[in-house]
């Protein structure tokens, strides 16, 4: 009887031990699964456009850059397509009239223009992006650069009325436009590559933007001429600077979309002329110099450098990144204080 009771107790003990082990194993298995669920699944990096730093989604980011000369004569305003440019450069040409070099990579405007003639310093800027350079007309110096150099280009003088179209609502030379589709058609016909791994610009993180330091500036105004006064006005609700011309907000001709910039980069460069008889300008875009960078309502006073053909902001020897979005670069004569007036923000 005692032997039987001992056997029962032994059996009961073994059963409890097995149950305990099984429970412990199940608990360990459950905890292990929970830990695996808690570990974040690695995601692929967000694909962004190289010249704006904005998310590209499923869109291609290796499109070849198009660089288009856009007219800024009073009779050419408002222009078409500038609201979709990744970067726009503005600089003086003849007299006190400025012209734009619009850099397109992330967006495809329906039409761009009015298209105007080429100048050497704009060609140099386009080369910094290995862009297909598009112009209608050229100076003797620009013609020599394009016809004897290695820049891919499309010239309106040779394709007027085909790839380039004349608008009926304006008079020449302010009425030449090129649809984006025609620019691509022309590039294909000339055998130019249409895809390329575009060297990206440097962009800030969201955290860096929140801690951005600088002088609070609401408005920056550049006076190129009495009838060519450019202002960038800050809108805190979207963190962008809105472009104005002669006191009026600049807009796209077709869509009426405002021209805005996440970055306004104003650089001071030496200006001269070829000689006393040639009124065309020479602008030194290699030397470097003083610059203002306006971002998110803040102004930084820094330097600009030409790095592999691109004008970039530098401070204390370090490159200053842009905020993701569109960038306007205004090239002015020395000095910044003389050519740019600032209105402080709150």
From TrEMBL:
Lineage: Bacteria, Bacillati, Bacillota, Bacilli, Bacillales
Residue intervals of the DUF3048 domain: 51-192, 221-329
One Pfam family from the record: DUF3048
UniProt keyword annotations, A-Z: Lipoprotein, Signal
Signal peptide location: 1-20
Top-level lineage group: Bacteria
Alphabetical list of InterPro entries matching this protein: DUF3048_C (IPR035328), DUF3048_N (IPR021416), YerB-like_sf (IPR023158)
Keyword Transferase: no
Protein name: Putative lipoprotein YerB
